[in-house]
């Protein structure tokens, strides 16, 4: 049941909203379309939105950024109690609508967005890095004045994996965000692309060589120790699913990219610029 509910949450995050109604329609068997509601301002200048578990972050044509509800509270892989006699789950299911937006930023037109539900990052056109959500701030906050950011990846705690966020700059340096502080984590400054594992970071340098470091393997200076790596099937520990990428030295991963396996998709606004949202599904 836990796996089923987790799957439903992930599927819900990836849904693309195309139409909606403005008020609930009592039906015996509701569909996803029946549950969609138009946001309360009825604006017609929305571009897209991202599910943030307890709400949505949405972008308007003028580059302003808005939050419905909040970012966070995803409860990935939560355990649902069951009746020991019947085996049926014991919980109360409820739907919560987040339809009233609050502005959390501006100047995000044509920005690159990275979403993992709990928190989001954005790289503006000027190359500056911004973040908001759980562990960061309610409003979009500039995390770095540097204008050279390429990408950012998010890895959340789950299935005994580590919780870490890794950023890559255009100059080839590698960074980690810890306690709201950015720290350079590698002595090398020629990284081309990065893939995040359970508790390991895999990277291809500009000479085409593949390297690996674990978050448990750090030098006296606190920086991660990277070593040359050769991918072998069955020897990747908790990162078996990454073997196809590592075997080919991440040939399918674009340059200047941090691949984190995130499958959360953006939600498109309707053709007329209106925005319709599904409710948050919570379990007590």
Structure commentary:
The chain is mostly beta strands. Helices cover 7% and strands 36% of the residues. It has helices spanning 2-13, 32-35, 243-247; strands at 37-38, 46-51, 53-60, 65-71, 93-96, 101-105, 112-115, 119-123, 129-133, 141-144, 149-155, 164-169, 174-178, 181-184, 191-196, 200-205, 210-214, 227-228, 258-259, 267-268, 276-277, 280-283. The strands form six sheets. A five-stranded antiparallel β-sheet has the order 6-4-3-2-20. Strands 18-17-16-15-19 form a five-stranded mixed β-sheet, with no helix packed on it. It has a four-stranded antiparallel β-sheet with strand order 7-8-9-10, with no helix packed on it. 34% of the residues are buried. The model is unreliable at 1-18 and 24-30 (pLDDT under 50).
How are the SSEs placed, and which strands pair?
Elements: H1 2-13, H2 32-35, E1 37-38, E2 46-51, E3 53-60, E4 65-71, E5 93-96, E6 101-105, E7 112-115, E8 119-123, E9 129-133, E10 141-144, E11 149-155, E12 164-169, E13 174-178, E14 181-184, E15 191-196, E16 200-205, E17 210-214, E18 227-228, H3 243-247, E19 258-259, E20 267-268, E21 276-277, E22 280-283
Parallel strand pairs: 15-19
Antiparallel strand pairs: 1-21, 2-3, 2-20, 3-4, 4-6, 5-22, 7-8, 8-9, 9-10, 11-12, 12-13, 13-14, 15-16, 16-17, 17-18
């Amino acid at each position: 049941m836990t796996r089923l509910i987790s799957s439903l949450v992930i599927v819900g995050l990836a849904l693309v909203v195309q139409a909606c109604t403005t008020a609930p329609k009592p039906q015996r068997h509701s569909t996803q379309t029946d549950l969609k509601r138009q946001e309360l301002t009825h604006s017609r200048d929305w571009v897209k939105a991202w599910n943030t578990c307890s709400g949505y972050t949405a972008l308007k044509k003028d580059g302003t950024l808005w939050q419905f509800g909040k970012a966070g509270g995803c409860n990935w892989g939560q355990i649902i109690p069951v009746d020991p006699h019947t085996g049926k789950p014991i919980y109360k299911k409820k739907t919560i609508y987040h339809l009233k937006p609050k502005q959390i930023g501006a100047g995000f037109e044509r920005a690159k967005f990275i979403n993992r539900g709990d928190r989001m990052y954005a790289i503006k056109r000027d190359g500056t890095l911004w973040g908001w959500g759980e562990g960061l701030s309610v409003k979009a906050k500039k995390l770095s004045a540097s204008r050279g950011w390429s990408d950012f990846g998010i890895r959340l705690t789950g299935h005994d994996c580590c919780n870490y966020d890794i950023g890559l700059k255009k100059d080839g340096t590698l960074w980690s965000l810890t306690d709201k502080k950015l720290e350079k984590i590698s002595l090398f400054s020629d990284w081309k692309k990065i893939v995040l594992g359970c508790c390991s970071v895999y990277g291809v340098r500009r000479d085409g060589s593949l390297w690996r470091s674990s978050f448990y393997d750090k030098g006296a200076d606190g920086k991660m120790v990277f070593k040359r790596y050769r991918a072998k099937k069955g020897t990747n520990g908790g990162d078996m699913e990454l073997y196809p990428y590592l075997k080919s030295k991440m040939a399918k991963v674009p340059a200047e990219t941090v691949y984190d396996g995130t499958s959360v998709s953006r939600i498109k606004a309707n053709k007329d610029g209106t925005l319709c949202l599904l409710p948050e599904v919570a379990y007590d």
